[in-house]
Amino acid sequence: MTTPTVLFVCVHNAGRSQMAAGYLQHLAGDRIDVRSAGSEPKDQINSVAVAAMAEDGIDITANTPKLLTVDAVKQADVVITMGCGDACPIFPGKRYEDWELDDPAGQSIDAVRPIRDDIRARVRALIAELLP
């Protein structure tokens, strides 16, 4: 079986998609190829998202926001957008999901924790589906 590739997409690739990628990398290791990107990437990851992930023992400080490309979508088996209405290129045979999640941008750590926990639960369910 080939290693599935999952691409998480949000507008800025600075919060939700980075947290999801961090969880998937941490929980699945090398069993799933993890990528993330944004249509308008920020200069750096949201510091509150970094802090929320650190509370759960996951370090995403080395990650950087990346620009979403057609190639990134082509290479992915699963494309997950983060409730941001992103216009992702659509290719037949790919699995697409939209996770409706609040944007952590400008939020306090108390507001970001439930978003983080929701992402963690969704990532665990995704792993169970991809790696039976």
TrEMBL record:
Positions of the Phosphotyrosine protein phosphatase I domain: 4-129
* Matches recorded under InterPro entries: Ptyr_pPase, Ptyr_pPase_sf
Q: Kindly give the SMART domains that the UniProt entry links to this protein.
A: LMWPc
Keyword set includes Nucleotide-binding: no
The entry's protein name is Arsenate reductase ArsC
Give one Pfam family: LMWPc
Classification via CDD domains = LMWP_ArsC (cd16345)
Q: Which UniProt keywords apply?
A: Arsenical resistance
